[in-house]
Amino acid sequence: FAFDRLNIGNIYCEECLKQCSPSVMLGEEDVKTIRILMKEGVNIDVRCVPREKPVNMRELLTMIGA
């Protein structure tokens, strides 16, 4: 990939599989894609706005059982 960091915020999914935060709801395909990116070494964090403290996506997925 041409990037090694990704910030995810404000994602809504009708068929929400997992709610990672109040503003991030992921479907099954979202989780699969995120896992692929993380496996390839992309560091992913979740936050609504840039000034918020980032939360590590790997930790979030573990906490919510995804």
Following the backbone from N to C, one meets helices and strands in this order, namely EEEHEEH
Number of separate domains? 1
CATH superfamily placement: Phosphotransferase system, sorbose subfamily IIB component
Corresponding CATH architecture: 3-Layer(aba) Sandwich
Which secondary-structure class do the elements indicate?
alpha+beta
Shape: globular
The amount of helix comes to 25-40%
What Rg do the Cα atoms give?
Answer: 11 Å
Tell me the strand percentage band.
25-35%
Please write the CATH class name.
Answer: Alpha Beta
Distance between the first and last residues' Cα = 24 Å
- Total helices: the number is 2
Number of strands: 5
- Major beta sheet, strand line-up: 1-4-5
If you consult CATH, what is the topology? Fructose Permease
Q: How would a crystallographer describe the biggest sheet?
A: 3 strands, mixed
**Average pLDDT reading:** 86
Care to describe what's here?
With 66 residues, the chain is α+β, with helices and mostly antiparallel strands. It has a single domain (5-64), classed as Phosphotransferase system, sorbose subfamily IIB component (Fructose Permease). The protein is 30% helix and 26% strand. The protein is built from two helices and five strands, in the order βββαββα. It has helices at 28-39, 57-64; strands at residues 5-8, 18-21, 24-26, 43-46, 55-56. It has a three-stranded mixed beta sheet with strand order 1-4-5. It has a two-stranded antiparallel sheet with strand order 2-3. A hairpin with a 2-residue loop joins strand 2 (18-21) and strand 3 (24-26). The radius of gyration is 11 Å and the shape is globular. The model has no long low-confidence stretch (mean pLDDT 86).
